[in-house]
């Protein structure tokens, strides 16, 4: 496009508006006149009452619809299979008569006596409607009621065993006969503690675990198959059991991209390597300010003393650092100020080195082993699988393995992935250098990334865009991963990913609209000046 005039474009970016002004430039790039100015106002994508993203409300409603749809589909599939395998009659009116039967009585009687096909189908359909809770470690920890729920399940299992009931259905039938409730009811009550203060006690009357439903199905099927092996065949058993117990796996929530290797995911903050990276980065940046006001870099020996102390402590104060290094109280550190009196330690190692978890054994493990443990704790959905793995690999008893499986680790992600950390951390350990130097050193040693100043789109491709494209196309190091199923006809958000913050996402898209509209009418600006609210790094 031919340049129509030389002008400077000034932009003021806000959370819900973009101010812009065009200033004509003279032959010496001096401002001559204001051509045009304006403001584009838009929604920031958040609820004005509480500041939450508007996408949250839509997501919650969509999740409720999906759960309801899946329930209806599962019940419809169970009905089709029961009819197809000859348990229920094909005529809907004939099936209606079985609704009057007591399913709890059928579930109990079926453990000793033969049931008619329709009676068994009624009992099984009732199981499918109330198939119990299946624990998922990754979501249960964020559920405020998960403690009350797990306690109710544990109490129910103990009651079934103490009353010598073979299945939970038999136990529920006994409760029904005695006039007790057979439905899960959530309760809250105020309890007065020993100190005189009250606390809220949350509990369930009872709650059934999915494993109990599976055990009951297996026992019922085993007993009934001895009476009618032709009807209770293996094909019917496999299909009905799969429909009864099937649980869709959670779709993984991908973290952001690694700053240095964009195709990699960012490593969790709980990863011991990520914790050590942060510690080394901070300690390497420490400077000692002596009485003569000169700043001195730490020696490798001094740095290692502080790093080792931070490895085994949740925090180390600057006063303690002076004692560790044998410095006088008059000496200060460059990171020390009235608002900051300490450095944070390795939160993960300090936690897992406690007696109820690994104890002192944690510090004897290799770094790769520690990372593997944390990776499993964060990502394994099955609690039983995780506990078994911990016991087998590290010779732990069940109590310690359960504590580790239930541990609350630091949340969130760092800026680097595991591959990048494997290059950067050794560079930081080798000498007392800042992060920027460690990146350059790792790049010179064959790491698959360049220094930050060489990571821009223009430097990597040499391409100059005629207009602003979708930001995710250029800022791949700063956006989430694209949808692998996306096609060219899908939105740019699906094809390239987007920034999770809705305000930033909307603001950058609105900026693109403003700039491209001005380019289309007035040509490309000779200069662009962006006003920001705070000083950039």
**Contiguous uncertain segments of 5+ residues:** none
Instruction: Identify the overall geometry.
Output: extended
Query: How much strand?
Result: 5-15%
Q: What is the residue-mean pLDDT, rounded to a whole number?
A: 88
Number of DSSP strands?
11
Overview of the molecule:
This protein is an alpha+beta fold and 537 residues long. Among the domains are: 86-230, no CATH class; 272-410, no CATH class. Helix content is 46%, strand content 11%. It has 22 helices and eleven strands. The protein has helices spanning 54-84, 92-96, 103-109, 117-129, 137-140, 146-162, 168-177, 210-227, 234-245, 272-284, 300-312, 318-325, 347-352, 367-379, 383-394, 398-405, 418-430, 435-444, 457-461, 471-474, 492-496, 502-522, and strands at 7-13, 17-25, 31-41, 186-192, 198-204, 287-289, 295-297, 315-317, 332-333, 342-344, 527-531. The strands form four sheets. A four-stranded mixed β-sheet has the order 3-2-1-11, covered by helices on one side. A hairpin with a 3-residue loop joins strand 1 and strand 2. The protein is extended and about 100 Å long. The mean pLDDT is 88.
Give the helices and strands, then pairings.
Elements: E1 7-13, E2 17-25, E3 31-41, H1 54-84, H2 92-96, H3 103-109, H4 117-129, H5 137-140, H6 146-162, H7 168-177, E4 186-192, E5 198-204, H8 210-227, H9 234-245, H10 272-284, E6 287-289, E7 295-297, H11 300-312, E8 315-317, H12 318-325, E9 332-333, E10 342-344, H13 347-352, H14 367-379, H15 383-394, H16 398-405, H17 418-430, H18 435-444, H19 457-461, H20 471-474, H21 492-496, H22 502-522, E11 527-531
Parallel strand pairs: 1-11
Antiparallel strand pairs: 1-2, 2-3, 4-5, 6-7, 6-9, 8-10
